[in-house]
Amino acid sequence: MDATTYARTLLASRRPGHSLPQAFYADPNLFALEMETLFLGEWLFAGHACEIPEAGDYLTHRIGMAEAIVVRGADGAIRAFHNACRHRGSRLCANGAGNATRLVCPYHQWTYDLDGRLLFAREMGPGFDPRDFALKPVACEQVAGYLFVCFARVPPDFEPVRQRIEPYMLPHRLEYAKVAHQTSIIERGNWKLVWENNRECYHCAGSHPELCRTYTDAPTMTGVADIEADDFLQQHVARCEAAGLPSRFHLDPGGQFRVMRVPLLRDTESFTMSGRPASAKPLGAIREARIGSMLLFHYPTTWNHLLRDHAVSFQVTPLGPRETRVTTKWLVRKDAVEGIDYDLGTLTEVWEATNDQDRTLVEQNQMGVDSPAYEPGPYSTVHESGVNQFVDWYCAAFAGHLGQEAPLAAAVG
To answer: CA 272 to CA 139: how far, in whole Å?
Structure first.
């Protein structure tokens, strides 16, 4: 049975309200199919505009066999191109980030302008027209300082995403921020297990003592059910909305992204051990002090926390059927000075600890899923509505890319 037929059969067999069949977490052929269809067909979080502030600044983003160069042009516009020379396909940019006046292939020195035009190709003979060999573009969108790319020939419409999430993000003014610190860890687990772990706090009280100093494990904060019935949450939303900060829960009708603003515990203001702000310079011009965290996820590659004093972005990159890279970036205001306005240890210690704890959880989860005794188990109707929602989205999106109608989703919560 070929991989596409096998995937369709497994998707049709999935039991609603339960975890996925084992093969989805381990089979290399299904993983390759996900990379070729789902990941190359969806919008992927690539980084932050503040990481490439000057002309010639670039970053690269690789997923599966595809890689994009995201570069700021001399005109200030941000564009993306396939990281492959039009001569014989050599990789143009080997580094994850840098600055270049021109994009020069290291193999035969074909030279491209920052807008993708071929400027120089040595001794190609008569009849060669450089206009026919510009870099191949990759769709690129920017929203409130976040960069997304899509490798599809005809990308999904990004405008509904922008219209919904931009008002929530703009008050934080992340285009005027900087990355104070970043880390990448390799979790020896399938990328869906990474997401499932993120989409519930059922495990938080027993696993994340640092995070739980400020973040409540109430299922309404991480999940997608019974939001309106949570008075603590709704009072916070009303106060933030009155201060001019969009905060109400919104889940994309297709399930791909969610945005909302949630309270932190007691009188805490930030993800620090003390609960006090990690940076003395607030992002943007937010005057209200206790705004909690603005939560954003966008499947399949990013979840985020935007606070008053700093922001934290997480990027999920599958590397293999049992291996996932999670990159975390801490952003502060552009003019904040380390050692004066913020202490790096204070800024990062909560999520450094939490990431490492989650890595262990995911790896132990993968080992258990690989057991011959594994079979899909039921999700908690109280705590795991978010996990069920992610798995429902995955099944529908993957089936859609395979030209199949997904099985009906089951409501949890």
So the answer is: 37
CA atoms within 13 A on the CB side of 238: 7
What are the backbone angles phi and psi of residue 143, rounded to the nearest 5°? -140, 115
What mean pLDDT is reported for the chain? 96
Work out the percent of the chain whose per-residue pLDDT is above 90.
97
Measured between its terminal Cα atoms, the distance across the chain in Å is 37
The token duo for 193 is: 């297990």
pLDDT (average), residues 31-43: 98
* Alpha carbons 134 and 115: distance in angstroms, whole number: 9
On whether the CB atoms of residues 152 and 41 are closer than 8 A, the answer is yes
H/E stretch holding 152 reads none
Exposed, middle or buried: residue 247 (CB in 10 Å: 0-12, 13-18, 19+)? buried
pLDDT of residue 404: 72
d(CA 136, CA 133): 8
